[in-house]
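Example record

The entry below shows one chain as it appears in the dataset: sequence first, then structure tokens.
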Amino acid sequence: MLLLVLSALAIHPLEGTVAIHAMLTVSQVSKSFAGRILFEDASLQVNRGDRVGLVGPNGAGKTTLFSLILGEASPDSGKVSLEKNATLGYLPQETAAAGAESVLELACGKSHQALEDEHDWEIEPKAKRILAGLAFRETDFDRPARALSGGWIMRAHLARLLVMEPDLLLLDEPTNHLDLDSLVWFQEYLKNYPGAILMISHDREFLNALVGSIVEIAHAKLLRYRGNWDSYIEQKAAREEQQLSAYKNQQKEIASLQQFADRFRAKASKASQAQSKLKQIDRMEKIAAPTAQAKTIKFRFPQPPRSGLRAIALKDVRHAYDSLVVYDSLDFEAERGQRTVLVGPNGAGKSTLLKLLAGVLPVQRGERELGHNVRVGYFSQHRVEMLNVRQTVLETVLDAPDPVPEQTARTVLGSFLFRGDDVFKTVGVLSGGEKSRLALVKLLLHPPNLLLMDEPTTHLDVGSIDALIGALEQYEGTLIFISHDVHFIRAIARSVLHIHGGQLTPYAGDYQYYLDKSQATSARAALTAGRGLTNEQPETAAATAPVGAPGMREQKQQKRAEAEARKALAKGRRETEKRAHDLEMQIAILEGRQKELSGELEDPAAYEPGGRAVAINRELSTVSDELARLTTEWEKATAELTLA
């Protein structure tokens, strides 16, 4: 069956026949682009049923390899061939076309007459099941596809691919446009996909769950490692260690032979031996020095000013979308330095909570209180709308009251895939993913002390995610975020907040602690779990108590004493919190007065005869002393709260 080529998404067969078990063969292919060698004598074989992850740094040639496989580009030498009559499906990373067809028609491929009518009765129910798995509602099925946002159009094209079931799927960052529930569904669906899969993905958990081998583009070759992502990392480290050891040994041997030749080549009796040593060096098959790994950028990111201990609080907050009540009587508090990931099913209110904290959504009832000296920054995919489309990438990053040096800006931009002349592109010509990365760089170089992030790793490659982790590991402010990237969560989160049914369940430990307590079946599934378990286990009946255990009366007395102790501790903490808050307010007032007085001292009139310079200095000294005293008290109060 011939499936037509779409402008943004292709499903088509490639000509050529190969060995019966090989579906795709890349044979001794070389390819240069703009004077740069991407592939040199590179080979790859993908068999039926293979699940392969394609990895390599940005610019290594992943997209070029897909273009060669799709027949959109030709190799300089070598051959790319697909098994005869095999079909190939491709999902690009961004921008797929949509016409007048409905969502269901697009998923079924009807508008392109790629299906035979007698199969419609099978195709349409299948398409509906897949669309539902990708979070389309039944009311969306008859909507014109072109009326959807870009992300939802991509989902509809992904549905079409899964309906068609081509023999080989080429997927380029397929999880970028999926929410958590859809991602979990898609991951499970691919486990039973009947064809072969070759995918590019930054999601290490996704690769771990699905692939049986990793193909790395390195040194213009296609290097294959058996196993998933974690296995690839271990094997690659072992290979590099072996290569380094072999390289060092060979270099020692070469140095020894060269030393002999240099020493004795002038002596007639030894000249022939010296010449023999030089020939021995020439005949050696040289071992290449291991290429230094691209490392996460190592410099000190700018840090925000220190906030008060309580960064932000929501008190008795209610929020509803028309008749749908998301939160009622919500209480939430975040302290300075906290790093919390929000988890829970779609629709539970994770993004709503983040927007309430950011002030993007107004509080309908209750209070939103910012702590002392708190400055809020909110990163979401919609943040790109705040960028100036006329500025260049570099101008955007440097446009700040306290800009970083240009070299620093260019170094960070390079880690987030803006390299060379890319920094001179105007924002208006950037793709959605590029704008998202640019907004992220701008935020990291001018950070607030309360950072709220919604899916920050979308559109980032593995290297950029590691650069983001490196920046956030240095970050000294308060961080609350949502992510579906398990690797990122494990690296950054120090506490977990589960949200379900308007209820917040905190876990005072990292993501592994949450997994252990919630008894999750998988690290991915736990992100959308419908309920969180409390840290307390149900009490057992007295009849099942072991011999020697206290009786019911003693248990009640013990529980009463414990409750009173907790009550006293809570009261003491509230009093300390109030004292710290009052001190913060006093400090803020005095800091304002200190600034006013310093400004007055800059006025030359203050130093003229009869001027106020002496009085101003006297008051400034008093204010400074009082500030020092209050700051000491505030630090003592916050230390008590930290230890409590």
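Notes for this example: Residues 263 and 475 are 57 Å apart (CA to CA). The longest strand covers residues 22-33.
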